[in-house]
Amino acid sequence: MPRLLSSLSLHRHGINMRRSGLTSLFRTSSSAVQLPSSQINHNTNVRTMATQAKPTLTMENLNPNIKVMEYAVRGPLVIRAGEIEKELEKGVKKPFTEVIKANIGDCHAMGQVPITFIREVLALVTYPKLLEDPSFPDDAKMRAKLILAGCRGSSVGSYTDSPGIEIIRKHAAEYIERRDGIPADWQNIVISAGASDAIKNVLKLLICDVNGKKPGVMVPIPQYPLYSASLAEFNMHQIGYFLDESRNWGLDIAELNRSIQEARKVSNPRAIVVINPGNPTGQVLSRENIEEIIKFAHKEGLFIFADEVYQDNVYAEGSKFFSFKKVLMEMGAPFSNMELASFMSCSKGYMGECGLRGGYAEVLNMEPKVKAMYLKAISAMLCPTVLGQACLDTIMYPPQPGEPSYDNFLKEKNGVLDSLKLRAKMVADAFNSMEGFSCNTVQGAMYAFPNMKLPPKAIEEAKKQNKAPDAFYAFELLENTGICIVPGSGFGQQPGTYHFRTTILPQPEKLKEMLNKFAEFHKKFLQKWC
Amino acid sequence: MPRLLSSLSLHRHGINMRRSGLTSLFRTSSSAVQLPSSQINHNTNVRTMATQAKPTLTMENLNPNIKVMEYAVRGPLVIRAGEIEKELEKGVKKPFTEVIKANIGDCHAMGQVPITFIREVLALVTYPKLLEDPSFPDDAKMRAKLILAGCRGSSVGSYTDSPGIEIIRKHAAEYIERRDGIPADWQNIVISAGASDAIKNVLKLLICDVNGKKPGVMVPIPQYPLYSASLAEFNMHQIGYFLDESRNWGLDIAELNRSIQEARKVSNPRAIVVINPGNPTGQVLSRENIEEIIKFAHKEGLFIFADEVYQDNVYAEGSKFFSFKKVLMEMGAPFSNMELASFMSCSKGYMGECGLRGGYAEVLNMEPKVKAMYLKAISAMLCPTVLGQACLDTIMYPPQPGEPSYDNFLKEKNGVLDSLKLRAKMVADAFNSMEGFSCNTVQGAMYAFPNMKLPPKAIEEAKKQNKAPDAFYAFELLENTGICIVPGSGFGQQPGTYHFRTTILPQPEKLKEMLNKFAEFHKKFLQKWC
User: Could you say which of A88, A386, A485, B129 is the most buried, measured as most Cβ atoms within 10 Å of its Cβ?
Assistant: First the structure.
């Protein structure tokens, strides 16, 4: 049974580790004169003009939740990588010529080419004059006309309903039906500016202290740090449950029970987050494992957050994606009455359209009055980006057999997924061949999360530098090779273990080069600190 | 001196008035069996499977801040308007054939045609193959190439830095410099998915109770309800200050003093929001008025939120837009050291690209460590939509004299603004000619906010129906004419006065028709209730 690493200590850990250096990395044009605070009386409105020169917003009165939140995927390591890129541009000499950003699942940034059909439809809805251009295929034009017919004034420049354009929500429902073989109600689909937006909008509904206890949300450790960041921002209690590295990062029900029992002492557990396929861990959950989780959530009365943005990214032999909705519905009552939100994104899969910010939540069995409040809450933000919605439409309603774009679409889609499959294996194999590293099979998603044994001397040195040992390793790697990864401490890990997350996204040749460089660095690192 | 209408009582008012009917307007597929709550023990983790059928998320344990928040621009009246549209589609007979949505500043929805240059650039960056198409002008291609060069992997599908693409931030700084004649630092520009996103991201920095007092934010009454909604969501104290209707909705410093003194008893005032040009009130503040406000904010140690999204929408003779930044900088120290966030959007002005979700905050004099926290906080949401950013770029760096698109761009831009100027006058004149109505000059923005005297019998009837009198009027108007406006109570108003907001956006012929219908309805309404 693993030891408990509370969210609080994880946070503390994160802060100590990462805040050093962060604040100095942004310049501003502030020229405020700093006066001793004794000259300022904050509790009176009778003050002379000369006294107000200190900023009114300071680290002392800043939102305390913002102070503690951390988002490692864009943390100090990534900021340093950006600085190094600028230094290289200026001609500073380094032992490498470019930074390889393996820190973030940013497909196009790593050379993946956009799917033609998606971009054709987007160009058509943006600039409808192109509907007369014979070089655009008819199915793309048909999709564009459908989307424009759903836009007020036939323009993507008008606001849509806050949960999105009706026809796109309907296409999403049809997509889900095809995927699961289970009916889907388009009114349960809420389109969003990427999955992050959708997740935060559902999560914030749960902010409610009961009997002086904070609402608690179970998140996997390691986890995608959007969850820890959002829970910190919302002042909710993070209940970490450890994924079982020895079972390829599966969920162990005994561990779920342990973590919720610990958490009930200090919080009111309300929800469980499951990321499947896993980020950063790359596992694909078996149907049996999902059933166990659903039974657990049912027993504990938890709202299920199924983060399923990598549903198209399944590579390993024998692995198959099952949606939580499908399993829950097929289990029948009482499970099929449970509250579930499933999240999808345009940013991952084969399309990788991160920058367009499209996604949705499918929300099941939400109490009607609560759902009305949810829809009211998102209405003040008006609507998700219409071009992000249009992008989502092309994924929910892709070219069909017999349509002119079908063959090319399939070729491009399979090209991306087949290549990712090869790279998933290439990455895990490479790390497994390095001394002291062990890496689970990357069954799905876009990441490997290898375990690394670090030499005690390196750990000592890291502590001297006030860095987590894996962050120390990652900084050394970056400065020596230009490879940017994210240390395991940014996602959480069993105390005393060290990991890192790398994407599998560099194009094959670049990836090979990166893995060679990595192996070379690792050998030298071990020599240096052995 | 106006009487105090506290934000609390405004909220209460709003809730009583608006919540009726809201929850019944959304259907869900929920099939959860409702069990008496006595059968459920929320404080134990030992429960049998059969007992969990009640939803875990209910109105009782929903986020209480979400429960109280209201957003009238998309409130029950607008929901009813949507229902009426569906009824009309189905052939239900009504005294009108279409709904005219004068409730929301949604330009393209009301027939405004997109600016060609903007859409050309967007099509080019979305589908770069079009860079070879000779029918696209060279300046649009040059802009597209600049934007793509700022995108990782030259794709708008990759993530950007969280505050946006560097070259676009630089173009925004240059735009601000041209506007104000004052230097702007591109690192102070934080691009966002529309101004709403930017406003909420700065506002949330101020969430911090001091000595048990909530942070307070001064907002104009009437105000754009994004502010009341966000303050409710963040559990901050709304400090309403009344705009002076008798001075064309200007800001009266005595009223600012009154409202902050009242508010200090129960909250810790930290910021002041000024909307200029005004929404819903249409005023354009004089330079002198802005100076007074800045001096007041300085005296009180307030962070200034300058909502300047209508900066291009100035129509009245003698009115001119001055940015808060320009005035504050030209006032010199100590004012030029004050903290200010100015917000801009792609959704308004002459472009009206609401659906693309582009905007920015220019943040001045923010304490460097605080600014680092601000940038950290937005990083978990990854980045604003890249196509929204690209749209912003076309506005920050429009066609220049001598470039091929210049003449047409200017013609289209001035066409929109000249027409809005005519419509601004047409709307105010029309309402001033109706019995019991008086409407200030629409100096800027996109709205008129007429004052209406309602017959006592109509007010009585409204109370019987548990509606605010102006909401009663607006519902009657909608059901009888199809015209959808927003009652003044959605924005706040002096107690005992009644107003409504209408946009000036219907195209001229449609607007004339709408105003005629409105006048006819109003006459009948007065007859019925006199």
Answer: A386
* A233 to chain B, closest Cα gap in Å: 8
Choose among B42, B261, B364: nearest Cβ to A45: B261
Q: Is the pLDDT of residue B11 over 60?
A: no
Under CATH, what is the fold of the domain B175-385? Aspartate Aminotransferase; domain 2 (3.40.640)
Q: Report the residue from B30, B295, B357 with minimal CB separation from A367.
A: B30
Q: Mark out the alpha helices in A153-286 (DSSP H runs).
A: 166-180, 194-203, 226-233, 253-264
Could you tell me if the ipTM is greater than 0.95? no
CB contact under 8 A, B26 and A69: no
Q: How many CB pairs under 8 A join A and B?
A: 399
Domain A147-396 coded CATH 3.30.450.40? no
What are the tens digits of pLDDT across the range A238-293?
999 999 999 999 999 999 999 999 999 999 999 999 999 999 999 999 999 999 99
Residues of A with Cβ-Cβ distance to B55 under 8 angstroms: 339, 365-367, 370
Query: B159 — contact with chain A (CB < 8 Å)?
Result: yes
Does B508 lie at the interface with A, CB-CB under 8 angstroms? no
Chain A residues within 8 A of B295 when measuring between CB atoms: 49
Pairing, β B100-101 against β A359-364: unpaired
In this prediction, residue B46 carries a pLDDT of 37
A320-373 residue pLDDT tens: 999 999 999 999 999 999 999 999 999 999 999 999 999 999 999 999 999 999
CB-based contacts of A209: which residues, under 8 Å, 6+ apart? A215, A268
Query: Per 3-state DSSP, what percentage of chain B is helix, strand, and coil (rounded to 5)?
Result: 50, 15, 40
The Cα–Cα gap between B157 and B150 comes to 12
| CA B66 – CA B75 distance, rounded (Å) | 14
Q: Where are the alpha helices (DSSP H) in B224-283?
A: 226-233, 253-264
